[in-house]
Amino acid sequence: MVDKYNYYKNKLDPMKYRAGRQSMGTSLTGVGYLWAFLSMISMGLSATGFYLPFWLQGTMPGVENNRTSILVTFGPFRRCTYPRIDPDTQALQIIEECGRYTTFTDIPSFSWQLVTILVGTGCALSMLVAFTAMFSCCVRDVISQTLARVGGGLQLIAGLLIGGGCVLYPNGWNSWEVQQACGGLSAAYQIGTCSFSWAYYLTIAGAATSILCTCLSCHASKEKYYGSYGM
């Protein structure tokens, strides 16, 4: 009877079950913490660069206060400084504010509409992986090797989408709004008198960091060990 008691005691020892559950868990490696950190950096760079309308800058002739020119900046779906006809006086006004286009079809170039979709989708994927990676820094058993690699794959897709959007963006320089700000000399992949602005480079940096995170994700999680029941 005693032997049978000891047998079942050893079999049902709660410490063994606890150890089994712990061994089934996964956690980030040192590389994994770096991956999570860079994932947040990538997301921040891409999302900030995408939202801010400082991809391209040019000038418009000043019509008020004896100003010879006014700075104009563009993003894929937003711009700063735009002309407007005053409804009362019918005079041309220059509104020195930043805002998005009223509707998607108001974006002045089909290329820029496509850029908005590509970069927006890439930023959404980057955000999904980044928050999951940061959550795994605080909670155990969130990221396994397989999930880390899936996340890395999503980051590769995000980086390619964002980078592709940046490459496609100059194709929209033939729109009349851009030509108006670039001395009438701009065309597809011809910048005229305009120049790139800092948010464009910020977005490219976000895409490059996202692709770098793809490599780190392969070593982000420790090996997964299985309990005695092979679960």
UniProtKB/TrEMBL annotation:
Segments traversing the membrane: 31-52, 110-135, 147-170, 198-218
Main location: membrane
InterPro entries xref list: LHFPL (IPR019372)
GO terms under cellular component: membrane
Alphabetic keyword roster: Membrane, Transmembrane, Transmembrane helix
Membrane topology: Multi-pass membrane protein
Pfam family name, one: L_HMGIC_fpl
UniProt keyword tRNA-binding, yes or no: no
Keyword Ligase: no
Compartments it resides in: Membrane
Protein name (Swiss-Prot/TrEMBL): LHFPL tetraspan subfamily member 6 protein
